[in-house]
Amino acid sequence: MTSGEITEWVNQAVYQYSQNPSVTLSYVASGGNLTGLPLSDTRLQAGAASTSATSTPSEATTAEPTEVTVNYSRINQATASVTPTSDTGKTFPLYINASNNLQAMTAQDFIDTFIDPAIDLLVAAASSSGVGGTGGTYDIFESTSTTQGAVSTTLINASPIFVDTRADTSAYTAGGIEETLDQPTTITNYYLHRINGTDNTPARTPVFFDGSDDVKQYTAASIETLLEEYVRYAAVTSPTAITYNFDGTGTTRASLLNTRLQGGSGNYQTRFVNADDYRAQEFPDGTPGTEDTYSFKLNKS
């Protein structure tokens, strides 16, 4: 086989993984087990209102805005138990050895030639649903659309795994004092997706020794089954096991932002209701800034 023909079968291993991944992520409403959770969304809320029956409460006596934190722990990771076909000495494709004789690959030869390169493609930083892409692995996007640029995906759940919010400054008015303290607006929703794979048809199919030591050609289904078993096995077995995490080791697939108004002393506002009712309250203020960046990562270990 040429290197190009080997690559065709590596790409087929990637496709087989995309159809039945052995490391899966799922959405849960709470209690997710992915390393790095929870992710914290922080925002400002108004300080408590001050009231007086004689005069307007001063800024010095009015409560400052405070921070609200909402924690998200919405991703579970699970790994399948995979037992691939054992090596009988005639299980794997033939190659021409140093003595110019046909010899069956060992399981490790098969892994080294087809499976390890497939795992390397799967853990690439940039998601791709094309041939030899990252099908069967996961990414996080800011919409529920199953078309993300050139990438075809499967949405795991229509509920976001993280929501970045900030105080909605337009919701706070002097005329509304006493205003509700926490009045957020959603800045960005983040959703979990699985990348779809694309099938390919290699030009030639390898051969093997049958029980009588005759040389036979694999059917497409039989070699594809071997590829599927071993790529699934490799994805849950060190040193090629695929794991996901936030802010750990590996290649970054997505970055999730927690933003917040970078307020200073608060937006002090007053309200005169009547001669016996004076009110004051400090609203969230400042310009938006990034408090945290959470990196969704894919690691081979």
Overview in brief:
With 301 residues, the chain is of the alpha+beta class. The protein is built from three helices and 19 strands.
What would the keywords be for this entry?
19 strands; 301 residues; five-stranded antiparallel β-sheet; three-stranded antiparallel β-sheet
Topology:
Elements lengths: L2 H17 L3 E5 L11 E7 L4 E3 L13 E7 L2 E5 L14 E3 L5 E3 L2 H16 L15 E4 L5 E2 L2 E5 L6 E6 L16 E12 L11 E3 L5 E3 L2 H15 L7 E5 L4 E11 L5 E8 L2 E7 L4 E13 L1
Antiparallel strand pairs: 1-5, 2-4, 3-18, 6-7, 8-12, 9-10, 10-12, 11-12, 13-14, 15-19, 16-19, 17-18
Helix pairs in contact: 1-2, 1-3, 2-3
What does this protein structure show overall?
The chain is of the alpha+beta class. It has one domain. The chain is built from three helices and 19 strands. It has helices at residues 3-19, 107-122, 220-234, and strands at 23-27, 39-45, 50-52, 66-72, 75-79, 94-96, 102-104, 138-141, 147-148, 151-155, 162-167, 184-195, 207-209, 215-217, 242-246, 251-261, 267-274, 277-283, 288-300. Strands 8, 9, 10, 11 and 12 form a five-stranded antiparallel sheet that branches. Strands 3-18-17 form a three-stranded antiparallel sheet, with no helix packed on it. Strands 15-19-16 form a three-stranded antiparallel sheet, with no helix packed on it. The longest helix is centred in the first third of the chain and has 17 residues, at 3-19. The relative contact order is 0.25. The model has no long low-confidence stretch (mean pLDDT 97).
